[in-house]
Amino acid sequence: MVTKKILDILSTVTDPEIPVLSVIDLGIIRDVMVNDDTITILVSPTYSGCPAMDMISMNIKLALITAGFHNVQIQKVLSPAWTTDWMTEAGKQKLKGYGIAPPVGKSFDKMYLEELEVACPQCHSTNTTVISEFGSTSCKALFKCNDCKEPFDYFKCH
Ligand SMILES: [Zn+2]
């Protein structure tokens, strides 16, 4: 099962910005196609213009080449666009463990950040406030917990 082996390798390729999340956790792998000795990986970029994307593509290629697959092609799939709904449940748990609040709700809810009940990844209190729409990267917002007083990043629904 070549595809299974490739998926196993992909689960070791992580997001350079959030090293606890693999590309599988992120849900950005759309398809894996094996044609003789050529492997094509279809990848949906996360946030458009996210500079991490080129690095992710390169890391996928590197991981597969290291594992002995030499003919690797990465194809970007722009439509349908990636949404945080595709992030796996395991991925959301890993995010929380990393100190980043995972996306709340579904992408189609279109709620304002102020309306969200975002739980603090440290003490799990939902008594939290938005400080800034943009956190350490544009994919995240900065929140503050009113109970433990710790600021934290929230991975925005998208
Ligand atoms: Zn807290």
Kindly summarize this structure in a few lines:
The chain is an alpha/beta fold. The protein has helices at 2-10, 23-26, 52-66, 89-97, and strands at residues 29-35, 38-43, 71-76, 100-101, 128-132, 140-145, 151-155. The chain contains four helices and seven strands.
What secondary-structure arrangement, pairings included, does this model have?
Layout: H1 2-10, H2 23-26, E1 29-35, E2 38-43, H3 52-66, E3 71-76, H4 89-97, E4 100-101, E5 128-132, E6 140-145, E7 151-155
Parallel strand pairs: 2-3, 4-7
Antiparallel strand pairs: 1-2, 5-6, 6-7
The structure holds zinc ion.
Zinc ion (ZN) is lined by residues 120, 122-123, 125, 145, 147-148, 150.
Q: What features would you describe in this structure?
A:
Helix content is 23%, strand content 23%. With 158 residues, it is of the alpha/beta class. It folds into 2 domains: 2-76, GMP Synthetase, Chain A, domain 3, CATH 3.30.300; 91-155, no CATH class. The protein has a 4-stranded mixed β-sheet. The protein has a 3-stranded mixed β-sheet with strand order 1-2-3. 30% of the residues are buried. The mean pLDDT is 91. Zinc ion binds next to loops. Zinc ion is lined by residues 120, 122-123, 125, 145, 147-148, 150.
Q: How far do the termini sit from each other?
A: 34 Å
Q: Total domains, how many?
A: 2
Average pLDDT, all residues: 91
- Which hetero ligands occur in this complex? zinc ion
Residues in β-strands, percent: 15-25%
Helical residues, percent: 10-25%
